[in-house]
Every structure is written in C-alpha cells, then in structure tokens.
Amino acid sequence: MNSSDMYREIILDYWKNPRNKGIINNPTSSFKDSNPSCGDIIQVDLKINNNKIEDIKFSGDGCIISQASASMLTEFIKNKTIDEAKNISRDDILMMLGIELSGIRLKCALLCFKVFKYALYSYLGKSMEDEVYDN
To answer: Do the beta carbons of residue 93 and residue 69 sit within 8 Å?
Structure first.
C-alpha cells in the first residue's frame, strides 16, 4: 500500500467514524457556513474555558473530504489553548489529509477550518480581517 492509499483509508475512516460530530448545548461560540459549489454545510460549536478549547463539535452535511477534514480538525483542536488554536494553519489541515486536492476539493477541505476560525474570532471579539485568511 502506498502512502496515498494509506491516507485515503484514513480519510474514509474519519468519514465513516466521525470524531466530535454533534452539537454543544450552550456553546461559548458557534458559527455556520457553506460551500455552495459542493453543497457542504458545516457548523462548529466551541466550549472555551480558562483560555482553553475544552470542547469542539461539528455538525452538518457534505462530501467525504469536508466531513473527514472537520473530524480531523476538531480532534486536533480539542484541549488546545486559544493561542495554539489561533496558530493552526491551512497547511496543517492539508498535511492531516495527506492527499493532493483540486481547487474545488480544497474549498471542501478548508470549510471547517474557516468556520472554526470565524467561531474563535467571534469569541475573541475580533473580525477575521484581523487575520490573514487564505481559502
């Protein structure tokens, strides 16, 4: 099995067995967005306590890439400090996925990242324009 096949297996596992899928009742912050080109819809709920992301959940529907990426990202972010979470980049997401993506699939893979950043910056009382964001 080559590395590309291995990453495809991992992506399928995250899609079939999503981590942190659901909603948080009374989240500290929440944001929802969609990718109209593919039909993906993702909502991210955050529970932040003592400068730490105590819990993170995602909900919504979409393609395998968007759902697997959301599952991977939420697993990666949980229990990080706000500063650690702010430093997560789109390259971190792409490295987790481990496969080459076309332009449209790139939007699928980064939707949860975008939604997470909006939820986090909303909590911080900042605008996304305060951060350079490349989708």
So the answer is: yes
Is 44:17 a contact under the CB 8 Å cutoff?
no
* pTM for the whole structure: 0.86
Residues 8, 10, 13, CA angle at the centre, nearest 5°? 110
Which SS3 state, helix, strand or coil, does residue 37 take?
coil
Q: Are 89 and 134 in contact (CB under 8 A)?
A: no
The pLDDT tens digits for 6-27 are 668 888 888 999 999 999 999 9
CB atoms within 10 A of CB 14: 21
Pairing relationship of beta strands 52-61 and 29-35 according to DSSP bridges: unpaired
* Residue 13 identity (one-letter amino acid): D
